[in-house]
């Protein structure tokens, strides 16, 4: 690999249908010009209609994957997705410390687009204790932010702001609350830092092809950070990429349920 190659690492679960998880992350990295490495935390049997099974990877093998990657590759950013168990969460946290990982983006994946639960209830405390303080950015959607705070989902931008500030007070460094589950003509995300809030809005697209949206956004942010973008710029670029990928997803015919985004919309179907 040539010197200076930009590399990002995803630590997440595998999606057998290819629309979310590790597969979505690696597609996103590739689409944005970043070499992708991966640590698989769980195998899922799933498709666009739901999750039929989860097979957890043992914590010691998760640690072995982390050590193998960091001992050989220069990692510019880390995206963390599905971590179903408390012991795996602790293992990942120790691995981040061991290798002094930087630019960590944590997507607190709890429920799949289909509604299937991906995070065990007893792992939520471990997420707060072990990983949220180590992340540069956490990217909860409205239901995830509510679950982290044991509150009702935000129904307005003011409530999103308030919940983001509560997450900061509880130990998060920076919070991106995603408004995709909201209503209205715009899909509004709020990037909430101690120094202030950045509002990011895009037209809300009427589609069922939203499988892997959160995975794709967080990995796109990690790709931007790996390339040296400042955090607000990485978030803006990621939002633009995901919005275009959702808009282009109507050109895909994948599955009978919530279809995937079109990660390679800029290259496919071109003359």
Description of the molecule:
This protein is of the alpha/beta class and 271 residues long. The chain has a single domain, classed as UDP-N-acetylmuramoyl-L-alanine:D-glutamate ligase, CATH 3.40.1190. 36% of the residues lie in helices and 21% in strands. It is built from eight helices and nine strands. The strands form two sheets. The protein has a six-stranded mixed beta sheet. Strands 7-8-9 form a three-stranded antiparallel beta sheet. Helix 1 links the parallel strand 1 and strand 2. Helix 3 packs parallel to helix 4 and helix 5 packs across helix 6. The protein is globular. The relative contact order is 0.16.
List keywords for this structure.
alpha/beta, 271 residues, UDP-N-acetylmuramoyl-L-alanine:D-glutamate ligase, single chain
Which SSEs are present, and which pair or pack?
Elements: E1 7-15, H1 21-31, E2 35-47, E3 50-56, H2 59-70, E4 77-80, H3 86-98, E5 104-106, H4 124-131, E6 137-138, H5 142-149, H6 157-170, E7 175-177, E8 186-193, E9 196-203, H7 213-226, H8 231-248
Parallel strand pairs: 1-2, 1-4, 4-5, 5-6
Antiparallel strand pairs: 2-3, 7-8, 8-9
Order of helices and strands: EHEEHEHEHEHHEEEHH
Percentage of residues in DSSP E strands: 15-25%
Average pLDDT, all residues: 91
Q: What is the CATH architecture assignment?
A: 3-Layer(aba) Sandwich
Radius of gyration: 17 Å
Reported for the largest beta sheet, the result is:
6 strands, mixed
Overall geometric form = globular
The number of domains: 1
The computed structural class is alpha/beta
- Stated plainly, the CATH topology is called UDP-N-acetylmuramoyl-L-alanine:D-glutamate ligase
In terms of per-residue confidence, which ranges show pLDDT below 50 for 5 or more consecutive residues? Answer: none
Please report the first level of CATH classification, the CATH class: Alpha Beta
* CATH-defined superfamily: Ribokinase
Distance N to C terminus: 31 Å
* Number of helices in the DSSP assignment: 8
Please report the total strand number as a whole number. Answer: 9
Helix content: 25-40%
Task: Output the strand order for the largest sheet.
Answer: 3-2-1-4-5-6
């Amino acid at each position: 690999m040539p010197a200076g190659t930009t590399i990002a690492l995803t630590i997440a679960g595998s999606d057998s249908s290819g629309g979310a998880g590790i597969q979505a992350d690696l597609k996103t990295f590739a689409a944005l010009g970043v070499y992708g490495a991966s640590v698989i935390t769980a195998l899922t049997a799933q498709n666009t209609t739901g999750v039929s099974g989860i097979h957890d990877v043992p914590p010691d093998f998760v640690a072995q994957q982390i050590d193998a990657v960091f001992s050989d590759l220069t990692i510019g950013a880390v995206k963390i997705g599905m971590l179903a168990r408390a012991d795996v969460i602790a293992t990942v946290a120790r691995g981040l410390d061991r290798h002094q990982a930087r630019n960590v983006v944590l997507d607190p994946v709890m429920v799949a687009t289909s509604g299937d639960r991906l995070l065990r209830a007893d792992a939520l405390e471990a997420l707060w204790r072990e990983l949220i303080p180590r992340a540069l950015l956490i990217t909860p959607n409205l239901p995830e932010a509510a679950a982290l705070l044991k509150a009702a989902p935000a129904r307005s931008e003011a409530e999103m702001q308030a919940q983001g500030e509560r997450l900061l007070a509880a130990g998060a460094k920076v919070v991106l609350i995603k408004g995709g589950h909201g209503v209205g003509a715009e899909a509004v995300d709020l990037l909430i830092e101690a120094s202030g809030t950045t509002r990011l809005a895009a037209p809300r697209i009427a589609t069922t092809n939203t499988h892997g949206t959160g995975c794709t956004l967080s990995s796109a942010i990690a790709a931007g950070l790996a390339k040296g973008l400042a955090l607000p710029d990485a978030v803006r670029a990621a939002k633009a990429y995901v919005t275009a990928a959702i808009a282009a997803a109507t050109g895909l015919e994948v599955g009978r349920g919530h279809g995937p985004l079109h990660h390679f919309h800029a290259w496919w179907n071109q003359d």
